[in-house]
Amino acid sequence: MPDTDRLMTIREMCDTYEVTPRTLRFYEAKELLSPNREGQKRLFTRRDRARLKLILRGKRFGFSLEEIRQLLELYHVGDQQQTQLARTLAIAKERLADMERQRNEFNEAINDLGEQIDWVTQTLASTAVSKDAAE
Amino acid sequence: MPDTDRLMTIREMCDTYEVTPRTLRFYEAKELLSPNREGQKRLFTRRDRARLKLILRGKRFGFSLEEIRQLLELYHVGDQQQTQLARTLAIAKERLADMERQRNEFNEAINDLGEQIDWVTQTLASTAVSKDAAE
DNA sequence: CGTATTCCTTACGTTAACGTCAACTCCCTC
DNA sequence: GAGGGAGTTGACGTTAACGTAAGGAATACG
């Protein structure tokens, strides 16, 4: 059995991905994850791990869990109906366009901030000099 | 008096920037804005407008209002002390590094999503064909 | 003068995304 | 068989960023 097919306990998951048990149970409640059960214990599959990675990445970009849930459907195609799939696809395309727009704004902001930092650095340097001169 | 120096009422602000009065009062309470008063009414200055724009942009990038408040200090240099200014500058540089890291991840995510969309589009097209053929 | 509009303050309500705590159930081991 | 961990299910608490509603002041209009 390849290592990637290992089932992980909640603790292993937490240590691996730096999340709390509460978080994983919360994601399950929100139907973002669906671990197996052994008795009442959760066992997380390869699929859960892949999804969790995407969830965490999505969060870093400021997506809500609900939005992420929609994106996850893209990675879970197989049993879906055509129309539903097409809808999901449309959503993903919109999201992609959003992200591209956001990236552009982001680049602007990075440039702005960089310039501002340069400016302040200059100011700081020159006032330090004039202060020296005054003493 | 140049138009940029006009004082704006709360409603003008709301219409211009598509925010609610509550939001503007909230930002004032958090010391992100500091409009003048005429009696008890707020009058927003050019400076408030500039700051509001930055606040809104910061929000689009997922910054918290507290983080934004720190960045705003960069745009309000003049009466500050050197040490305080230097600290602010350090914060801004970290923030810039964060943003650059985030941009890289972001680009990856955009590529991933794009590929995924292509893939699904393909799948959708070919299953549609085979479905046609089966009928 | 009445009332309509715009604004104000105060204060409680709401949503997302968990944190925290109590009370249980297994399973292991000493 | 008493205790110790790891895991479970409620259920209430928390923070950020406002929404919303109640009640009052100031100005404008007919």
Summarize the structure.
Two copies of one chain form a homodimer. Chain A has 135 residues and is mainly alpha-helical. Chain A is 70% helix and 4% strand.
Describe what this molecule looks like in 3D.
The structure is a homodimer of 135-residue chains. By secondary structure, chain A is mainly α. Chain A has a domain at 1-76: Multidrug-efflux Transporter Regulator, Chain: A, Domain 2 (Orthogonal Bundle). In chain A, 70% of the residues lie in helices and 4% in strands. The first copy, chain A, is built from five helices and two strands, in the order ααββααα. In chain A, strands 1-2 form a two-stranded antiparallel sheet. In chain A, strand 1 (36-38) and strand 2 form a beta hairpin. Chain A is flat. Chain A starts with 9 loop residues before the first helix and ends with a helix. The model of chain A has no long low-confidence stretch (mean pLDDT 83). The A-B interface holds A 57, 60-62, 71, 74-75, 77, 82, 85-86, 89, 92-93, 95-96, 99-100, 102-103, 105-107, 109-110, 113-114, 116-117, 120-121, 123-124, 127-128 and B 57, 60-62, 71, 74-75, 77, 82, 85-86, 89, 92-93, 95-96, 99-100, 102-103, 105-107, 109-110, 113-114, 116-117, 120-121, 123-124, 127-128. Chain A binds a DNA duplex (30 and 30 nucleotides) through helix 2.
